[in-house]
Every structure is written in structure tokens, then in C-alpha cells.
Amino acid sequence: MSNNEIGGYFDVDLRGTRYTPEGTKAIAEAIRVSPFITSIDLSENDLGSGAAKGLAQAIAVNTSITSVGKDGLNLKDNYFGAEGWGAIFAAICSSQVSKITSIDASGEGIGPEGAKLIGQALGNSVNASLTSVRYAIDIDSLNGSFGVEQYICVPCHLVGQLEQQRNRRIL
Q1: E strands present in the chain
Q2: Which has the least CB within 10 A, 42, 94, 114, 165?
């Protein structure tokens, strides 16, 4: 674990430390109450969907983290699944105080169920800060004809337009 202080704000590296459920709750509480954590790397911890729900509640009220991805709250390789990522997107999208401007959940194996949850969260978003979303859907799980992931990166205000073009592939 390493911490870097930058002008009173902290970047925290907790990558690959394999936290217990109690440890994850403590981290979520720190994210929830600290106005000084600007980035925290929780990648490669195999936290699972239960931890994602606890983190989601903390992310919704945090005002110092501005992105979910490599340069903000890094949640890569934690096996959150559809339910966990759905909870994270729902928490961020339903928050009027969150300063998160971008979410990168690409490469996380979000299937059709997760895409549906994410779409619902984005469609009902009240978060004025969120402008960019990137996640991947395994197209093979949708129709069996492609063996690649489909990457979606769109400004959130275009989500309604995407719903109208639901059957088109977006690359």
C-alpha cells in the first residue's frame, strides 16, 4: 500500500491486497467520509458483487473522486459482475453530489444483464457531472456471431438516442 499526498489530497494504492469483507467496509467508509481522497486503486482484489454494493453507496456521496477508472477509483479485475457494476452505475447516476465525470468499466465482462442495468441507470441519471461512460459487452453472449467485445463510449446525454438505435452495433 502506498499513499501520495498532493496538495493536501491523497492518491491511495491498494491494488492486489485481497481485502476481507470487513476491510472492504472500512475502505468504503473512508471513501464516503473523506474529502481528501482523489484517487484510490482497488484493482485486482477479487472483491465480488457484495463489496461493489458497499462501495457504490460510498461513491454516491463522495465529492473528491472525479472518475471511475485508471486515474480515479480503479475497480478493475474485482469480479463485480452485472449486479455489482449495475449498483455502481446506479449509485453514481442517482447522485446529485457526485463529481464523477467518467466511468470506465471496459474489460469487466459485463454481459447483457449488466448492460440492461447500466442502461437503466444512465437513462434515469440525475448526475450533472457524468459525461463519459465506457463499458464492454461480450457480443458472443448476445447472438453467438462475434467473438469480440463491443466497446461503448458515449456522452451520457446521448443515451436516449442510443435507446432509439438499440439494434445497431456501436463500435
Answers
A1: 2-6, 9-13, 37-41, 67-68, 73-74, 102-110, 132-138, 149-154
A2: 165
Q: In Å, what is the CA distance from 81 to each residue of 7, 26, 151? A: 36, 22, 17
In this structure, what are the phi and psi dihedrals at residue 29, rounded to the nearest 5 degrees? Answer: -65, -40
- pTM summary value: 0.78
Q: Is the dihedral of CA 94, 100, 104, 105 positive or negative?
A: negative
Give the tens place of pLDDT for each residue, 1-41.
Answer: 445 554 456 788 999 998 888 899 999 999 999 888 888 99
Three-state DSSP class for residue 5: strand
Contact 1, 27 (CB under 8 A): no
Residue among 168, 164, 132 nearest 150 (CA):
168
> In the prediction, which pLDDT does 139 show?
55
How far separated are the first and last CA of the chain, in Å rounded? 37
Helix-strand-coil split of the chain, %, nearest 5: 40, 25, 35
pLDDT digits (tens, 9 = 90+) for 44-72: 999 999 999 999 999 999 999 999 988 88
| CA–CA–CA angle 52, 116, 45 (5° rounding) | 25
**Bridge partners, 123 (sequence order):** none
Amino acid at 48: G
